[in-house]
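Service request form, structural biology core

Requester: graduate student, group of Dr. S.
Request type: structure prediction, single chain
Budget code: on file
Notes: please return the result as structure tokens.

Sequence provided:
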Amino acid sequence: MVTEKDIISPSTVIVNGCEFFTKEEIIDFFNLKPVKMTSQDVAIKCKLISDLYVSKEYEMATVKFSFNEDVLNIEIDEGHIGKVEIIGNKRIKTKNIADALDIRPGMTYKKSDINNAINVMRSKLPYFRRVTWTSEKAVNGFNIVRINLEEGNFVEHTLKPIAEFDRVHGLSLGVRPGLESRYWGTNAYFAVRYGFSSKIWNYQFSAEKSLFQNNKTTFGLDIHKLTDTNDHELISDNEHFWAEFLLGEAYRDFYQREGYELNISQKTPILAQLGLKYRDDEYQSLKKTEDWSILNRSYDEKYKDIGYKIKRNNPTILEGRMKSVIAECAFD
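Core staff response, request fulfilled:
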């Protein structure tokens, strides 16, 4: 039942607080013209305005109205954040998280904006296993956004198997245990493998240390005895494996190098990485020790006249010790 006191006749309608929509759009969309109406009608229109904001991901938007001296005031709060709470972090400082998160009190609450801010924070601070967030309205009317964090392991352990096949070692098997910490900016691994045809053990120890979050500077050390090739661009590792193992085709040439390498690299703001390496290695030639493949299982010379292929020999290199300085530039 509508009583006389429920009827209002504003001479002016004022809309305040809207930024996503203009005042004119709100007045036009909801027919908020200075005509005779009831307070119930205004309340319903305020609820519709609030629902419109929620549909645009402004889930904390509130709309109130007041009528005073023939003026109808529509007050829109699009859901400004009153407080940001960060919980669950143990080692990562709250200040560092807040700086990377870029969500501040006073900002307008919007789902997609908060999700984007969290994604940016996780790219800057990749130390969290999981990040979720919730929102609530406090007793004092403050909109609270609560960021819930679960930190991941600060040191990751890896153990990778190694299986290779080529004409200089035959089947090579090994393992590569490693440690990596994004938090401390360190990465280290030790790889060892054995060639069953060549009877050669190869190994490689590598360690890196990075400084700074943005535009990283990385220092590295590599001590090794390994089989290398200059034909990485010719064929990928997987293609080479199957070519030798299945087809008996030898596309890469190999040599042995033993020594160490010191390197430094610098990430730049223009998405490029500059690097400098000092390498001191002893180079040796490697002989072919294996002709076997799945499709050419007999590798005796006497069979080549009836269709069995013999893999080509691995060419020799100029042996000796070489010290070199290598400059690199890579673009992401």
